[in-house]
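Lab notebook page, bench 4
Experiment: in silico fold of construct C2
Operator: M.H.
Input chain length: 506 residues
Purpose: comparison with the prior construct
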Amino acid sequence: MKKSILSFCCATVAIGAAAQIPLDYYAPLDGLTGRELKQAIHEIASNDVKMLSYGSGNLKTWWAFYVTDMIDGGYVRDRYSPDEFSFGSRGASVSGMNIEHSFPKSWWGGSENNAYKDLYNLMPCQTTINNHKSNYPMANVDVEWRGNGVTRIGTRSGDPTSQDYRYWEPGDQWKGDFARGYFYMATAYQDFTWSGNQAVRILKTGAYPTLQEWAYTLYLDWAKDDNVDQIETVRNNDVERLQGNRNPFVDFPNLARYVWGDSVGEPFRPLTSVKSQSFTGGATIREKESVPVELYASTFLGDKGNCTVETAPGSASGINVWSNTTDHGWKGSGSRGPSTNLTYYETDATLLTPEIDLADHKAAWFEFDHAVKFAEAPYSCLTVVAQVDGEDHPLQVRRWPLGNNWDFVNSSVVDLSPWAGKKVKVGFRYTSSTEEASTWEIKNMRLLAVAGKSATEYIEQDMLDPEDSMPEEYYTIDGRRIFSKEDARGIVIVRRGSRVSKIFIP
């Protein structure tokens, strides 16, 4: 039911920029160390992912790059070259560019599996450079060939035994990005058997450590020198919306140190660890310490769930966007007429739950199942909101249907904790235009809340440790780790074993 999607492109990018790290997603990592931590990351990164098909065309790699790797003016972001290439129509390949695998498929024997299609492993790359870098692994190199002043090819610096082998080295501004990409690949696909001379020089088969020591040592340095920036965080958010998982090494810039580096023996704490962007769901990581209560639930299958519809001014008159069905729950649609001659209408209508009182709760969240068809980018025209005091606040929904079939997808946890203590309505806002009108079906909604501690109280609890022999650790008042006292200013939380105190550093 689409005729054009050009008007939706900018909205997609803006959504990615505004997203936040979902705390519940990382709750399984809490308190783990080394090998066990890497295994838990593997399970998170590889669970319930929906990879797009590889190549050009609708819902394929180049279609995704149109969102994940477009910069101002419609140009392609090329991390391998400073040359400029322009996107054409969405889904079309770009002349002079290839889809580049950071981990080439030859490293696992050539199977076109999830790793072959994983957007965290794929980047648009100038064809000339792609040909030169071949299936080489990354390292600091003694340069033999330099691609337009960015990508370098050569033997590995400081390794006289590698003279028969070639490596590639990214530009300094991209070294951290590629290092975190390698950390992700070596974890998400740690169960692979690595083969061939190129792979085994950087990888070893097995769940831990998977990367060769010289490799993870170098990449830790690269990641430290080139920290996470907005380009990475926005791409991480956008890729999640397309395939349903995240790169944890982007969300937590220090996470790799707990897997391979100087913190490998220390328990990882998602709540207090350094993060690349704001964190949602402050209290939910310890929800096991309180008993969640169900505040609202409905299948919506022939049951309206006491929902109401709020239609915005300007929405097409006479068009009832939302209808309740016995088979598919609530259904939103802005098209009318026989399937062979549909008419699309400009609509804007929000399906609202009854008001839910969170006055006595410190954390709340909900899930629902939904299906979308006839939409190339569902999250650009469909929105979930928290309505508080009559004002709509967009919510992050991590799992969206692809938009081209009737398969229901679970939304995963949607966090309402920022509005704990208030009265909230959850809204499902449907919009359409005279050029595109999708169909959105929603069922099986369940909202839970917990009357637990506040986020700050959880942070302070996390800082309690029975081992008095531990060295001093420093945190900001909102729980972010400070790795050097010299970097601390203002009110600082100090932990030494089980003793926690607050000090002021001018």
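Observations: The CA atoms of residues 79 and 174 lie 7 Å apart. The chain is about 20% helix and 25% strand.
Next step: discuss at group meeting.
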